Amino acid sequence: MPKPLIVDIPHDLGRDEAKRRLEHGTDQARAFLAKSGVTIDQLAWTGDRLDFGVSAMTQKIGGTIDVGPESVRLEVKLPFLLALFAEKIQKVASKEGNLLLTKK
């Protein structure tokens, strides 16, 4: 099994504001991903951790988002087929995460 994809996104919002933005952003992400053929199967917050599961290209993907006071850490377990696209996925996740956590 491939190594998990990890993206750390620094922010200066504080834990509560970063979590609020991520909670709001999940609604937007659901609509965006649906257009790309990706289905969100699970979204569950436990404290400052979001566990998620999505389906894409008949593949199941699971991961977590941990919200810290100065950074957000995304960890995704990609199946082998999608691990081939890990670099592109990492770039998109980093870019979109930065936009979500830096825009006013």
Automatic annotation (TrEMBL):
Record-linked InterPro entries: PHA_gran_rgn (IPR013433)
Protein name as annotated: Polyhydroxyalkanoic acid system family protein
